Amino acid sequence: MIDSQEFESCFIQWVSSLAKLKPKEVVAIDGKNIRGAKSNGNKSAVHMVSAWANENNLVLGQVKVSEKSNEISAIPKLLEVLSLQDSIVTIDAVGCQQAIAGKIIDKKADYILAVKENQEQLYQDIEDEFRFGKTIQTHLWEDLGHGRIETRTCNVITDFQFIEPDNKWKHLNSIIKIESIREFKNSDKPTETATRYYISSLKGKAQDFQYAIRSHWSVENKLHWTLDVAFGEDASRKRKENAAQNFSILNKIALNLLKNEKSIKVGVKSRRMKAGWDNKYLIKVLNLINV
Prior knowledge:
This protein is an alpha+beta fold. It is built from 9 helices and 9 strands. β8 (174-184) and β9 (192-200) form a beta hairpin. The chain is globular, with a radius of gyration of 20 Å.
């Protein structure tokens, strides 16, 4: 019976009282289906777009995607209600739209947007820049663990030859190419390679872009994955009226509180269980509301 839009507005106001975004903090925006909310096979699952502040370890807000719409229309609504000044907003290829880039700049933030073939001309121009460009910054990053070796090479160009100066991408200052190679130790799995392109309003070093783009995936690992594993969100069958959307907000309230209660060194699922068993610990978690 709770009005979901009002509830989301209250949630965002509460988080804004907790979160103190650091200069150039990465705010990752990404969508997630709540699969269990799909009804009788004839209705699409509820889809939520959320904003995750990487260093604050907090969900800043969420917006439900309309059944007759997509993330492209939901992302500007989320940007509108967030305070993003001096942050770096990262979005995957679905959000690579001129209007969204402009909206981020209007919020006095910077953007890093993934580019795929859905932006055909831009994608071709970026490929040409890296094929013929001469002034390229490079940074190499290696990660060893979990039975694999991953090497990521970040290349950055700021002096464009093929992208017109009067292009319609607001404050476009850098293009980025990430080349990744993933090798598996003690396994017959073949080596995986991938090349990804990005555009950005920032003028920074290659290592800074490497870090920011890597940080974007925290929205998958720290938010979406945790909601499924610790809160069983995908298994939830809530679907009537505003139930799925409102319960998604409740889950994110609990997640924000549990993520930032660090007196015990266990995962979110174990903290949630301890809060259910131990009233003193529950009060400690809830007292974070007044931090």
